[in-house]
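G., the chain you wanted modeled:
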Amino acid sequence: MSQFYVIVYDIPCNKRRKKIADLLEGYGQRVQYSVFECVLFPEKYKELKRRLRKRIKTKEDSIRIYPLKSSALSRVEIWGASPPLTQLPGSVVV
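Predicted structure as tokens:
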């Protein structure tokens, strides 16, 4: 089953920040400069974490990953000009 994640980062190095942003764009939707919403299955989530760990310097960079339950998504407030909330898939065909 997929899980909704909000991933935020603060990376001072422009080159590393670009690499992290490019990586995250392959997994989710950018909703602000350093904020992504991702809907990931467990295997993809593990893959993303492994790939992120290879690209950051833990003494300088900060990445936060917030898993959100679907019940919390219905209470999200979006103000101003921004993309709509990333939607969880409605159904999965197995």
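Residues 15 and 21 are 10 Å apart (CA to CA).

Shout if anything looks off.
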